[in-house]
Please model this.
Amino acid sequence: MLYPKKINAKKGKIVIKIMLLISLIIAILLYTINKIVTPTSHWAALSIACIIYIWVTVLYALNKNVNVAAHVLVQTIAISALLVYIDYILGFEKWSLNIAIPIILMTSNMIMLLLTIISRKKYIRYVIFQLMLCLISFTPVILISERLVEDKTLGIIAVGISIANFIICLILCKTDIIEELKRKFHI
Model:
């Protein structure tokens, strides 16, 4: 049986650079076509934002030392920013703030809880990302207090899920966290 040849690191980097260049050329072409054909519409900006999002995802995923929790956090931030930008380009109806971001936060917190349940012994490796996601999950509270959101329901549910998730993770991994703190701080 023949196995496919593995691409060496140098060739892989060349392929990535070529693909980045092609993406840049496509983005410039889209922008130029947009300005010539439909200057009042900003559809190219949406396409370029999606290209940037894809590259953030690809480059982060290609990192060989990717922590799953870190990947969840990066994806949460990247997709939220992309959706807010799309909402802004389309007239800022605030669907991204009312619906999309709370759903993304709920999903991310559920994924973190699943990671904790599946690999409790590895929880220490991503507790920082869990804490950062918990802090980011308070975004709906800020949006509600600044009156940027009309419907508060999903935002409040997202914050509640985040708090419950963090408490459950602390309860499930309490002994591991205490042992790690003792080890790190020589207590």
